[in-house]
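Feature request disguised as a bug: please show the residue count (523) next to Exopolyphosphatase in the output. Example input:
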Amino acid sequence: MPQSGGASVAEERRKGKSSRRAKRKRGGNARDPAISAEPNQAGNPGLAAIRPEDNSAGSSARKRKRRRRSHGPSHDNAPKPIQLMQTVAVAPGQPAPEDRDHAQAGKSSKHRRKHRGKRGLQGRPLVQEKPPQLVAPEGRQGDQPNGHGDHRGQERHATPQRHDGFHQHQHNHSDNESQRPVDLYAALDLGTNNCRLLIAQPTRPGQFRVVDAFSRIVRLGEGLGASGRLSNEAMDRAVEALRVCASKLKAREIRRARLIATEACRSAENGEAFLARVIEETGLDLEIIDRETEARLAVSGCSSLVGPEARSVVLFDIGGGSSEIAVIRIEDNRSSRLANHITHWTSLPVGVVTLSERHGGRDVTPTVFEAMINEVERMLDKFDCPPVAGATADSADFHLIGTSGTVTTLAGVHLDLPRYDRRKVDGVWLSDDEVTAMQSKLLSWDFAGRAANPCIGPDRADLVLAGCAILEAIRRRWPSPRMRVADRGLREGLLTDMMADDGVWRRGRSRRGYRPRDLKGPN
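Example output, currently without the count:
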């Protein structure tokens, strides 16, 4: 009958709802009173005897339960229609449909967990940021060893750095392909003791940024004073260092380069033959410069250390085989090139290598040290130069500037540096008493003590006192209350001159150069 039939259907629905609520509370399987795990007294079969097609509603409940476990609790309050599970024929070895659904649900859950960190608040993937480019501040100085005038006896490959008024700073170069090409200049100095290379780019007027640098002690002039020739071992060391320089030059597009050789090749009988070997084995064509050019280049390299208050300067460069001295007088019309103000210059045919070989550099007594000084003084007596104004007075008008490994070593020992640091040495002023104290300290040390000092090292331990003897002779000729230390030299002078000749720093100025006065050199 309709009423009874309708009531019966409503009653069954209420029972189904209460059964589902009880199941959610228990968290287990549905317990139908008509179906139990064991056969009841009425003979109803247990669950094990029920086939899937006989209990489609129960299978559907189990399927929903598995979905809830994989997807989490549902937030949709709308009632879900009950889907009756249909019996599907499954091939042997294939997973059942409910197993496939469960595996797919697990995979979807793992996918969401995997990509959860890449989604924003709205569920959209975040835009991937570009990797940051690290650029050091331009005024910051790195801790990398410098290739400029490095006198510690170790090979140096410098990182890109900048000469800001010839004070060095670290600079990081970008690898951007779209960056416009820059003009690079190269300067190589093959001296009696060292082989040095600088590659630089001009920046602001009078300044340049070092792109690459190299320095190695080769002792090309070893034994030159006794034999008058370059030894095979010394030439081999120099060629090997020049090969490194050649590879650095070939790796870059150089606009202009100047490669020079100084006293060792200048005075050796086989100097020209050695340079021919260099061309053949490395491809580098070095020119032997004269002593006047060497003196002018030393002045050009140190021009930024001469303050605007200076009116007279004595600048000296103590090399391995020769020592150059330039006397500079600056008038009111100061030229941009300090070398144009040189009035007198000389080149002494003695350096740290030749002097130490003649007198011995390992075991130097005060008597031997004084004999070295006297030899250099006799050479200076031949230098016809009038007294320099202000050299004996405590005045800022006079500058005594030294550029060599000797003066930088004295400064490093005076500052008690744990390792040589050009940034702390270049440009420092030392009083007359401080220079005297440092020379006395070095003279009191034996060879092992000098070699153990981090600012000297074993490669210079037998040369430093010979350099101090040359320095002492210069100080006696031009007494000064203080001396300025320059860790720079011919390479910086070469770069400065080449850039100035090309007019890279001029801004609408006339290219007509300053005409230097006639120089009075050695007789």
